[in-house]
Amino acid sequence: MPELPEVEVVRRGLERWVSGRIVKTVEVRHPRAVRRHLAGPEGFAKALAGQRVGEAMRRGKYLWLPLDDSPYSVLAHLGMSGQLLVQPEDVPDEKHLRIRIRFEDGQGTELRFVDQRTFGGLSLHETTPEGLPDVIAHIARDPLDPLFDDTAFHAALRARRTTIKRALLDQSLISGVGNIYADEALWRSKLHYERPTGTFTRPRTAELLGHIRDVMNDALAAGGTSFDSLYVNVNGESGYFDRSLDAYGREGEPCRRCGTLMRRRAWMNRSSYFCPKCQRAPRVSS
Ligand SMILES: [Zn+2]
Questions:
Q1: Which amino acids are annotated catalytic?
Q2: Is the pLDDT of residue 92 over 80?
Q3: Which residues of this protein are catalytic (predicted)?
């Protein structure tokens, strides 16, 4: 699953190479890739043809292309292995090419959705007055969004009787923070993942948000150099981001702050990585 910085790099690539272009044809090569679109592959192709693609948008890990003269947006689901590629038209098809979108201009490049595992796809949804595809209207703003409200987030955190990592992964509270960046930000903040949110003070919330933003911006800086190439996205597994992670995946290795061996705990079907000394477990109480 790509995390927010990877998705933002894809968004910038789409903005650079696709926004403003008019769709000529859409070829759906695998019906599963448009299964979320109720009118089926033909309806999908018909709805897009002749439409001008607007500014590429993102909220959290969701990515979409509004259509300028249409009430609809194209929502991309990258899933586990989905990639959006801008390729010269004469480049041979990828083995797992699912959707091809050609444009009316003579730029000679096309947009391809490639997905080995077919969990991802593209779908059309009505755009809300706020500019979001209606199916993601409930997703909270992400911490890199200029309109993210730190004060409201703190209040919501305090009101929610949960633990901090659960809260960070709750997309209705804050979006775009995945397992990796949650562990990294908690390590930087010296906070245990099971700390109750009710114990958070305003400065502590502010510090945590600051670390979340730093971690994401570091990843963006690491990946931002490559997006100018035609290759819009290499999804996660490519080492595209040469991440220098301090917590995630470092079980048994020394904490970069205190040297204590890092630990991993099973957590909600995933893992949490932490330093047992820097990130003390909260005392058990109700
Ligand atoms: Zn430590």
A1: 2-3, 61, 270
A2: yes
A3: 2-3, 61, 270
The percentage of residues in the chain with a pLDDT greater than 90, rounded to a whole number, is: 65
The rounded Å distance from CA 285 to ligand 1 centre is 24
Show binding-site residues: 96, 117, 160
Average pLDDT score over the chain: 88
In 42-75, which positions are buried (b, 16+ CB within 10 angstroms) versus exposed (e)? eebbebbeebbbbebbbbbbbbbbbbeebebbbb
Alpha carbon distance 36, 29 (integer Å): 15
Question: CB-based contacts of 193: which residues, under 8 Å, 6+ apart?
Answer: 163, 164, 165, 182, 183, 186, 267, 272, 274, 279
38 neighbors 84 (Cβ within 8 angstroms): no
DSSP code string of 128-170: PTTSSBGGGTTPPPPTTSTT--HHHHHHHHHHS-SBHHHHHT-
CA of 209 to the centre of ligand 1 (A): 20
CA 183 / ligand 1 centre spacing (Å)? 13
pLDDT tops 80 at residue 236: no
Q: Which domains are delineated in the chain?
A: 4-136 (3.20.190.10), 150-274 (1.10.8.50)
pLDDT surpasses 60 at 241? no
Output the six-digit token pair for 206.
């502010």
